[in-house]
Amino acid sequence: MIDVINLQKSFGEHNVLNGINVKINKGDIMCVIGPSGSGKSTFLRCLNCMEDPTGGQIIFNGVDIADFKVDINIHRRHMGMVFQHFNLFNNKTVIENIMLAPVHIGLADLKKTKRQNSIIKLTNLFRSSKMKKELSPVTTDKAQIKQKAKENALALLDRIGLKEKADVYPSTLSGGQKQRVAIVRALAMNPDVILFDEPTSALDPEMVGEVLDLMKDLAKEGMTMIIVTHEMGFAREVANRVLFIDGGQILESAPPEEFFGNPKHPRLRDFLSKVL
Is 23 left (phi over 0), alpha (psi -120 to 50) or beta? Predict the structure, then answer.
C-alpha cells in the first residue's frame, strides 16, 4: 500500500529524516517508537505530505505523492490522520466535526461532475451524433450528501458509545472522548490507512485505555494503521511490526516478539532498558 524510498526531510540545515526506507502492506499495524526528537512524528507527517519531503519517494497506491505535480488532496482522502491534541473544531458540534470532511468532499465532487457535464453539453453542440460524449450520472444532491454523512456520523458515534454527545461541543468532552471522536472522524472518510501521532500522550492515564481499546478493535477489523506511540505494551500486543527510529533513521524493524524479546541494535537495547 505504501512504499517509502529514501525519504529525507530537512528544516534548514537540520536533517530530521536521513533516508527512511520501509514498506507498509494492507492490514499492517506498524508501531513506530523512539526517543523524543528522533524524527518519528516528522516521518508520519511526511507520509501524507503535511510536511513536504526534502527528498525521496512515497508511493501510495501506486502514485508518488511526494511528487509536487501530484494533487495531494485527492490522495489524502484515503489516508486518515489522528493527532496528539485531537484537533477538533471547538466552534462545531461533535457531529459537525465528523461530517465536515465527507460533506466537503461530496459537494466538491458534485460540483466537479456538474461542471464537467456542462462542458460536455457545450462541446456536444459542435459534434456529430456519433462523436457526442455521454454525461456523467448525477445520482445525488446536496441534501442527500449531508443526510448520508449525518447517518454515517451517528452510526460511528453509536459504535463508540457517544451517540448522545452528537450535538454537544468538544469542550464538554473528556480527553478520552475527544480522541475517540477524532478517530471516528478519520473513519468517516473510509480511509485505506490511518496515521496516529502519539494518540494517547495528551491523555490522563485513566483515559488511555478507552482509546487503545478502540484502536485494538480497528486492528481486529483489518484497518491498516501506522502508530507513533510510547505505549510499549500496546505495541507488543497489537502491532505486527515495530520500527525503532533514532537520528532520523530506522535502526531496527521486526515483529514485536523479536523486537522486544531479542533487540539487535545496541541503541534499541539501551532505549528499551530505560522504558520497559
Answer: beta
Place of cell 456519433: 130
Query: Which tens digits make up the pLDDT trace of 232-253?
Result: 999 999 999 999 999 999 999 9
In contact, 113 and 121? CB cutoff 8 Å: no
> What is the structure's pLDDT at 57?
96
In Å, how far from its chain's centre is CA 14? 26
For residue 14, give Cα distances in angstroms to 11, 48, 261, 267.
Answer: 5, 21, 34, 21
C-alpha 140/C-alpha 117 separation (Å) is 14
Regions of the chain where pLDDT drops below 50: none
Question: Do residues 94 and 165 touch, judged by C-beta distance below 8 A?
Answer: yes
> What pLDDT score was predicted for residue 254?
97
Determine contact, residues 226/195, Cβ cutoff 8 Å.
yes
| Alpha carbon distance 17, 46 (integer Å) | 10
Predicted local confidence at residue 202, as pLDDT: 86
Give 258: exposed, middle or buried? Use CB within 10 Å, 0-12, 13-18, 19+: middle
Measure the CA–CA gap between 52 and 60, rounded to whole angstroms: 15
In order of 68, 130, 231, 246, 273, the CA distances from 266 in angstroms are 38, 71, 21, 12, 11
Please report the pLDDT score of residue 129 as a whole number.
81
118-147 pLDDT, tens digit each = 998 999 888 888 888 888 888 889 999 999
218 neighbors 225 (Cβ within 8 angstroms): yes
How many C-beta neighbours within 10 Å does residue 125 have? 7
The residues, any chain, with a CB within 8 Å of residue 261's CB and separated by 6 or more, are none
